[in-house]
Amino acid sequence: METKLDYSTASLNDIVFETRNKAYGAYFLRKIYNKHVTIATFIAIAIFILFISAPLIANLLGGDEEEVVLQEERVVELTEPPALENKPPPPPPPDLPPPPPPVVSTVKFTPPVIKKDEEVRKEEKIPDQKELEDVVISTATVEGNTKEEVLTVVEAPSEVGEVVEDKIFTFVEQQPSFPGGESELNKFIKKNLKYPPAALRNGLEGLVVVQFVVNREGEISDVQVVKKLGGGTDEEAMRVVKMMPKFAPAKQNGRPVSFRYTLPVRFGLQ
């Protein structure tokens, strides 16, 4: 008679395999599972301990001797440098004597003395006029060096003309100035400047920047607007600038030069 399973004391494997064959197969493997896990755990712990203690064991087995690596030291002996020879400096070359002056051809010519015919010698013959050309009269006849070249010294001109530059400067030692100064310039602009009707209708007000060149004579040229406002204000500012009299020119190094002048002209509604 088959015994009845007591569920209160039976294991999970007994309950699962209650109606199955327990002789072999899964039941046997599940039954020894815990045993295998326990054995594997102890093996893993042993391997881990062995791995950690391996360096310590190696030191204990190897002893305290350590291999000493000897480094070879090379000694380099430095010898004293050879003494420098104090040789005296070579003597300066001798001064060359100046070339001798050219020898001028001379012809002996002495005042004539009245003598008898037998007392007159051949070497006392009086030279004719052609022989006295291009020579110097002297007490003896000397053959000169007539082929030597004569150097002619040409004097340089004592005065150098003033160098005139056409460069237009933007930075100078002394800027150009309106006759009477800056206050007179402002009065001139205020007196001659007229508000354009188009700018009045549109309510335009602001600044117009005009540039022009003041040349070496103080004359105004190359008038142009670099900052525009519109409404006829640019043209009006240029018109007033072109009406200006001559400026005192700019100076650089004490001489007048051309200068690019920048003038702001303000238009404002009162």
From TrEMBL:
Keywords: Cell inner membrane, Cell membrane, Membrane, Protein transport, Transmembrane, Transmembrane helix, Transport. Residues 87-103 have a biased composition (Pro residues). It comes from the Bacteria. One of its GO terms (molecular function) is energy transducer activity. The keyword Nucleus does not apply. The chain crosses the membrane at residues 37-58. Residues 80-103 are annotated as: Disordered. This is TonB family protein. The lineage of its organism: Bacteria, Pseudomonadati, Bacteroidota, Cytophagia, Cytophagales.
